[in-house]
């Protein structure tokens, strides 16, 4: 059994390196996290006020065999006049013969720090499944007894923590993911790089341009052990409180990790984003990512589609719109 899980870890590592996922991040990335903070912070649960459910599908590096595909469903709502939030996140991430599934329950409590400002403290807890389909492997030695036969999987508990501050024009958040669960993987002798701590820092502001146009610059910094620090710089424009258009630039920088390969610091991508309130209840989004590095000569574009629905009708003219 230990040999099987060692093979699982090595196979996942080789698959990641082979297709260029050099950021070393086990958690999947999203371009539309700007519109759904539950992907990166449990303290976001219930922020929108109305009960809200969203599904996102991402196909990354289209054209590569075994390229990552990710599907998520999130739902959240608020209670106690918005001072508490509850959320649910379900994830399925596939990369070649490997698959990661997870489910998390989130809770957030908000402390009013000013007339229109709140500080949310949140936590989520659940479980993650790591699996490999041995039938998809192309082994040099099919008789190797360490090769997994069929589908092999393992489970580990998981917990995330976060803080989220916001008022009507500004927000900032910090969170830590994969807080527990490493011990379960250690006992199975699997590569720990796939359940290390992930840290996120984000902030943004809404700037009125005119009575019908607003501009929202924001950033996200991601830190993972054994990988360069990754950052996103985003600029979104909101037209008539209905249509979002914008772009995002993603890159890496080395901070205290001089032992990393030099080319790991040269991974750049640009994303173009569109999101529209089709009705007062329905929210549709699309993101197109294009790499600007060693993969740029290949069919490496990524596509991301999201559909969100407010269970209770969203009022476009609400006094304090939740644009974050």
Nutshell version of this structure?
With 324 residues, this protein is mainly beta. It is 7% helix and 49% strand.
Structural description of this entry:
The protein has one domain: monomeric porin ompg (Porin, Beta Barrel). It has two helices and 15 strands. The chain has helices at residues 2-19, 182-187, and strands spanning 52-59, 69-79, 84-95, 98-112, 118-133, 151-166, 170-177, 198-205, 207-208, 213-224, 229-239, 243-253, 269-277, 282-291, 302-310. Strands 1-2-3-4-5-6-7-8-10-11-12-13-14-15 form a 14-stranded antiparallel β-barrel. The longest helix has 18 residues, at 2-19. The chain starts with a helix and ends in a 14-residue tail after the last strand. Residues 1-25, 189-193 and 316-320 have low confidence and may be disordered.
CATH class designation:
Mainly Beta
Cα distance spanning the termini? 46 Å
CATH topology type: Porin
In the CATH hierarchy, what is the superfamily? Answer: monomeric porin ompg
Defining traits:
324 residues; mainly beta; 14-stranded antiparallel β-barrel; 2 helices; 15 strands; 7% helix; 49% strand; globular; disordered N terminus; PorP/SprF_Bacteroidetes
